[in-house]
Amino acid sequence: MNEHVTNAVHVEYPSRKRALLLILGSLLFVVAGIWMIQSYLSGDDTIVTALVGVVCVLFFGIALLFSIALLFKRTPTLQLDEEGIIDNSSLIPGGRIRWEEISEIQLYSFKGQSFIGISLHNPEDYLAGQSVMNQQLMRVNNRLVQVHVNIGRPGISSPLPKLYEEMKRRWMTATMQETRL
To answer: Which residue range is the domain that position 30 belongs to?
Structure first.
């Protein structure tokens, strides 16, 4: 392959179409949650319905804010370069991840959603550079899916399998060059 293409920076921006779909879906669930709470307050439903409504409003309210931010975001959500990955594609951005820090890159599904998962050689060193909140969220995430960093569909515009192949190729190229040095 041409060296220029190998070293070119690959940049991803948020998909406006996906952001709009997420906004609509989140808004529907927020409205449904408010309706459930209102139904309880008017005496027509149980406390369980109200609690489900509160969870809907909180969870999908956060998703709504994230989706609105994605819609107006003008900066890259993901970059692949000769040093590694810069991930800003989610609420828990991974930041800079060097190719040599990565132990595995995989494409996987969790609850019907596809993700690119990145496992690290020394996750504690990586976590030390994250905010306290991100550290906790990444640890919980790691227990759920056994990878340290996840890249999902909403934050990128390329098809996930194509991006996965590009990431894997760059990672393998970079780590092969290091072993030859």
So the answer is: 15-72
